[in-house]
Write a structure and sequence with these properties.
- Helix 3 (49-55) links the parallel strand 2 and strand 3.
- 39% of the residues are buried.
- The protein has 223 residues and is of the alpha/beta class.
- Helix content is 37%, strand content 20%.
- It has an 8-stranded parallel sheet with strand order 7-6-5-4-3-2-1-8.
- It is globular.
- The chain has helices spanning 4-14, 30-38, 49-55, 76-79, 92-104, 128-136, 161-180, 200-205, 215-218, and strands at 20-24, 43-46, 64-67, 83-89, 109-116, 146-154, 191-193, 210-213.
Amino acid sequence: MVSIKENLEKVTAQLPNGVRLVAVSKFHPVEELAEAYEAGQRLFGENRAQELIAKAPQLPEDIRWHFIGHLQKNKVRAIMPHVSVIESVDSVKLLSLIEKEAARIDRTVDVLLQLHVAQEETKSGFSVDEVLEAGEAGELTCYPHVRVCGVMAMASLTDDMEQVAQEFDLVRRTYLTLKDGPFDESEDFNELSMGMSDDWQVAVKYGATLVRIGTAVFGPRSY
């Protein structure tokens, strides 16, 4: 049986310089995360607030937790002490609430703006028009306790890699428009999080700096 350490080594060996792995650890027990940590992994992604809150205190403090799932507004306060990056900011309202909760405990939190470019309506995120309009209106850059560090997106769940490539290209172009517009003076706006186990190679071709990979690292979920 291939170990998590071996899986990590295989995945990271394929990543180009400048591309970092977020090991998606949802539905995997703390013991498996600890094995990945011992192998050198420090970025972990969780989709569910309850899991992040339960796991974080049991693992080393130098882990950087990325929250990558849909974030319910009533969970923001609970994850705030633990999370390093909230990748799934899908509205100005959520951004404002994150600012409020970060200020409450006197910390600054990094976030990514989630774009909705996939065909599935069930996926969350700003539309391209919405995020550009919010940027022009100054609604993305007025938060003293929030650093907007880039964008995140998921492609459609399809075997058509041409469609996936078109979607990642749209994300990249939107990111560059934001970087040249409302974030042109920001030194922090430099992250492009896209690509998962089945399509990360395509995402890297379109400028991904973070890839979110779970199954290829941990195997099928444990519970």
